[in-house]
Amino acid sequence: MLEDVDTRLGRRFAFFTQSMIVLSLISFSVETLPGLSESVRQLLRVTEVFLVGLFTVEYLLRIWVVDKKFRYIFSFFGVIDLLAVLPFYLSTGLDLRSIRIFRLLRLFRILKLLRYSKAINRFHRALIIAKEEMILFSCVAMMLLYLSAVGIYYFENAVQPEQFKSIFHSLWWSLATLTTVGYGDLYPITAGGQVFTFFILIIGLGVIAVPTGLVASALSQARDEESINNLK
Amino acid sequence: MLEDVDTRLGRRFAFFTQSMIVLSLISFSVETLPGLSESVRQLLRVTEVFLVGLFTVEYLLRIWVVDKKFRYIFSFFGVIDLLAVLPFYLSTGLDLRSIRIFRLLRLFRILKLLRYSKAINRFHRALIIAKEEMILFSCVAMMLLYLSAVGIYYFENAVQPEQFKSIFHSLWWSLATLTTVGYGDLYPITAGGQVFTFFILIIGLGVIAVPTGLVASALSQARDEESINNLK
Amino acid sequence: MLEDVDTRLGRRFAFFTQSMIVLSLISFSVETLPGLSESVRQLLRVTEVFLVGLFTVEYLLRIWVVDKKFRYIFSFFGVIDLLAVLPFYLSTGLDLRSIRIFRLLRLFRILKLLRYSKAINRFHRALIIAKEEMILFSCVAMMLLYLSAVGIYYFENAVQPEQFKSIFHSLWWSLATLTTVGYGDLYPITAGGQVFTFFILIIGLGVIAVPTGLVASALSQARDEESINNLK
Amino acid sequence: MLEDVDTRLGRRFAFFTQSMIVLSLISFSVETLPGLSESVRQLLRVTEVFLVGLFTVEYLLRIWVVDKKFRYIFSFFGVIDLLAVLPFYLSTGLDLRSIRIFRLLRLFRILKLLRYSKAINRFHRALIIAKEEMILFSCVAMMLLYLSAVGIYYFENAVQPEQFKSIFHSLWWSLATLTTVGYGDLYPITAGGQVFTFFILIIGLGVIAVPTGLVASALSQARDEESINNLK
Questions:
Q1: Which of B139, B194, B205 sits opposite A172 (nearest CB)?
Q2: A152-192: per-residue pLDDT in tens?
Q3: A36 lies within 8 A of chain B by CB
Q4: Are D163 and D62 contained in the same domain?
Q5: How far apart are CA D211 and CA D133, in angstroms?
Q6: CB of C206 within 8 Å of any CB in chain B?
Q7: Domain that holds residue C74
Q8: Is D113 in contact with A143 (Cβ distance < 8 A)?
Q9: How far is CA A26 from CA A31, A197, B139, B168, D141, in A?
Q10: What ipTM was reported for this prediction?
């Protein structure tokens, strides 16, 4: 029943688990809000205990049901399922402040959402088709990020020593600029820096954006191959 | 005549209705300008009454003309046509302040513009072709948005507690960053947060931008299928 | 010689004209710099007179050379060539301040650069291939821009009356957001406005960005057709 | 051994060289950090001397090993290899302040990373396929950048003379806007300037973004040709 999504009960169970995962994510987010009243905190704690209990039962049931137990436990989803509940049990014996960093692990629960989708395979094949270009473009993009950081450092450091402190600070500018996010916390003000940005952007937009097009065309290629296989 | 866009009179009527819809949108927008003189307000009110009258007549004519009356009334455009005039009649009997929120409904008039386009069918087929990937990418994008919000919250909350107050506030940052809008109201200042942003953007740009390429390639596929069908 | 770019002299002449056009654009831009010395202004004025003289001679030569004179004069490039020099002669008899706005026309000179490119035809065919989708997406994009402006106006006007003054001011926000420019002069601060922005961006990114992919795929289709025609 | 990446020793050597290049880049970046202690500076200087020595030995070995020595020295990678070490020897005899600008050349070391990738050939072919359109779109993009700078200058100069000082300053705005970076240091505030920005963005997004799609489709075409050649 746990594994079979085709039966009515299995579908219902999967749907229920999904809702609980979403609920736990919401309760986790609400917890970070500042200025919560004590009653809300209480409610969140109860929800947390209930959900961890539920996920633990689900995890144990899955081990019990599955034939190849060790294979499940060390599979991707087995580890995710364990990590979804383990931090709760571990954190109880620890100092309250250090709990916070462990709670980050609780987020792996989201990855459970991945389990029920079939379209991932097609995406996987598309990545294999476009692998070489992806790696090449990633390398070129990294090099461009670094080179543009060095360039802007030399142009802007003298005029804005507080903003473009070092190449590491310039890298942050490179990232925000080449991805076209453009927060506006760092920007060149010298004529040289602005002309440099012009050339970097002309080259950089292509380099950063091409992989996107590659994945899209690889995906449609994977779709074509699939429909050809279906025809055979 | 109302339905037949192929006759000369029908085309003229459709063109006239379209102009009136645009006029009503402009007059609605002008109404929101602060500091309007009383004479302008008067003019806007007269325009509004005139347009609502016109749209009402058009709506009643359409019901009168159409054979299957109930089917029209409960069709998408029938409901839109009704919603384009109904708020005006309902709002007269209500308190003046609550009118404002009802006026928002008047905007559905724009959707009437959809009526006259044929190319929508092709777009509809393209969406069906790329449906699975769209859903998958949307889910992955949602997960990425959430994960990046949690990550940046842990990196930045300690240093900028006023900006990154909670995961909900961080989600706003995630949205502005992953869509590359980058308003600049929120941005990481810690080295950890900036390195995290780097990885999130490298992954995120692909995930958010790929669906665009998918729709484009699906649309050209739909165009191909259409021209093949035309050849037969 | 003027029309024939295949002879050596013709190529040289075309290259010389292009350089002069670029020179005139640079001198026009330099003129706008504040705080120029009198000698620089003098130099710019001399350059301007020289260039206008040159372009006038070129224009008259072209009329003299061409067989179908009227056809050239009223062709796209004939009008551009005339507009490149006419403002200079007209402005001399006018008040100095109004000259500035006429000088804007001088920029049409750049369009002369279009003359010498052949790849435009392919782009033209691509636009015809993708015409219907382009129009549909443009309409949907316009509607989305307007709807998002109205939405954000209702969410933000009460809290930020100075920023989101009217629907027209909100339209500026819509434009900066949906194109992902994100200047950061206007952004929603209410939770409602931010959730609204989320949905608008999810829909809007596709709508605004798809036409780009359409043109690209139409261009490669036009390239395919061309190579098939070459094979025949 | 130096040239043969297929042997075990060759692979190890290549891997070692790559690591050293990355190390030198990191040490170069760390050097720009303000407020380094003397001991760290000492360490960086030692690392630098060691790496330059290593790269020099590698360069001389390569000359010694290769058959056609002059061809290597004047090849792309020969020059890069030389430039990776030369500035160090030259800078020792120079004034300390001028060293900084020479150190920029040290960055060419990164380009050595290019040597080991094969996928570049495919990208090269894709560029040839899409060359004409790329040039056309680049020209149109340049024209659009200039025209939008002139337009915004006329709209905004009167109201924001400090921001939109000249056409050159406006060009910086054009760049940040048409690439959708949108730093937010410059933005139009007049209604005319904002409407102008609207039209510029509608046209500009297509013009700037299309080349990206072109490269992607040309790359998939190059991939197709490759697989057809492999089948023969």
A1: B194
A2: 888 898 899 988 988 889 999 999 999 888 888 999 999 99
A3: no
A4: no
A5: 8
A6: yes
A7: 8-112
A8: yes
A9: 9, 41, 16, 10, 46
A10: 0.81
